[in-house]
Amino acid sequence: MPRLNKTFVNITRRLIWLGLIAALAMIVTNQYLLYRKYGLTKTPSESRLVRIADLYAENEKLKTELSQRESHDSELAAAAQNSDEVRKILNREKERYEIALGTTEVEGQGVTAEVSYTLAASQLIDLVDALRVSGAEAITINGQRIITSTPLSSLRGQSNYKIEVIGNKDIIYDAFVRPGGIFDLIAGGTASRQENLILPKV
To answer: Are 137 and 106 in contact (CB under 8 A)?
Structure first.
């Protein structure tokens, strides 16, 4: 049994290190896109400064997540004598990845927003980025689940958008309505907090 636990923990550690590498890659990629998209050698407009700040906040969020992942290694070591605890940790990680990949239905509190304005693909990208920076766990636009690989260009040019977001309802609501928020920088609309939303899988 001790040998089995040791093997289980070793495999789990390898999975966590893969996650750490992936998170580091995301940080580097975000930084590269930041420089390429906004051309920091030029004087940015106020709206660009806001978006650069948002991207910086997203990088900081990823760094925090990386630190949290590192702590999982010691957590697994402490749980090595209890395979049930290890399974619980792995199940939590599995659930997070399933939500990110859109392979599972998601339920929770959040915000519903309506935009009666034709959006370009770049505006849709800015909208989704702003929601993710605000801690959105899952997003749908006009009933379509949005993940990192979703081609947002397929949603451009429509006259109305219904946006559903699962996450902290107060923070996400504020991301829409605050001065300099989504409605100010991208497109006007209305938003309301929801106690329970159910978003479909991809």
So the answer is: yes
Cα separation of 80 and 68, whole Å? Answer: 19
Per residue in 91-134, pLDDT (tens digit) is: 677 666 677 677 678 899 999 999 998 999 999 999 999 999 99
Helix (H) or strand (E) holding 109: strand 106-115
pLDDT bucket at 200, cuts 50 / 70 / 90: confident
Any idea what DSSP says for residue 141? E
Contact at 8 Å (CB) between 121 and 156?
yes
Question: Are the C-beta atoms of 80 and 9 separated by less than 8 Å?
Answer: yes
Number of H helices, E strands in the chain: 6, 5
125-152 burial code (b ≥16 CB/10 A, e <16):
bbbbebbbbbebbbbbbeeebbeeebeb
Three-class DSSP category at 187: coil
Q: What are the residues whose beta carbons fall under 8 Å from the beta carbon of 15, sequence distance 6 or more?
A: 90, 93
CA-wise closest residue to 77 among 68, 67, 85 = 85
For residues 162 and 190, what is the distance between their CA atoms, to the nearest angstrom?
A: 10
Domains of the chain and any CATH numbers: 2-101 (no CATH), 106-199 (3.30.70.1880)
123 and 186 in contact (C-beta within 8 Å)?
Answer: yes
Token pair 């789990």 is at which residue?
Answer: 12
